[in-house]
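Reply to dn_fold:

You asked what the input looked like. This is it:
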Amino acid sequence: MRKHFQNFLLMIQFMTRIPIKLELPCSQEDFKNGTAFFPLVGFTVGMIQWIVYIALMKILPPKIVMLFVVLIGILITGAFHIDGFGDTCDGFFACKGKDKVIEIMKDSRVGAFACIAIVFNILFKYECMVELLSSYDGFFIVGVPIIGRFSITILAALGVPAKESGTGNLFIRNIGKREFLISFITTIVLSSLFLGVVNTAIIIPLVFVVTFLFNRFCLHNIKGITGDSFGANNEIIEIFVLTVLLATAKVIL
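and this is what came back:
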């Protein structure tokens, strides 16, 4: 049990800026075992956002509150995933060939496509979350990041490394059936709790499809995936889940 808890804390250290000031074992096996806890990392991020939402709704208008909720999500992760999303857009839309695309993705400078993608990402999430407040309670704030992190386990299982080395290689094809099953079951349970059984039944199969298509897109562009691909997929899935929630809310109403 202690080992599993350490692996969970390792994933919190790796994927967020939550101050876990511990020296934890970080072998390849520890990262493999840690993939089982990706949805719980999303749950942790989402719960902090939800607490902010509950606290501020008592004193501020809903639209301002949702600005803080989106901002807190970025700050908690250190813009980890959204940075990967921006780098991926910079590289892929440059259309220069595999080596050049990867070089652009590694470049610390921010290009035009990254700026456009990040601004669109934040605006889209904000507008969706404001709209969802009229149809759902605030629990969707917790559910969305859970599914986003679960999608990373799908991509890790499907993908092949586009580079010989990189942080993404800690997870690419380094996820066992047991870890994937734990991640999947955890996601189903938590998603059903925070988004509802019907929404979960609709969303989870579609998440597999979208992630599969994104993996194929990466294969076409760079012959595999990188750490940035994980961040990009997380952001794409979060946007997708928010969109589906809006669509189902309209149908129900």
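Residues 24 and 101 are 34 Å apart (CA to CA).
Hope that clears it up.
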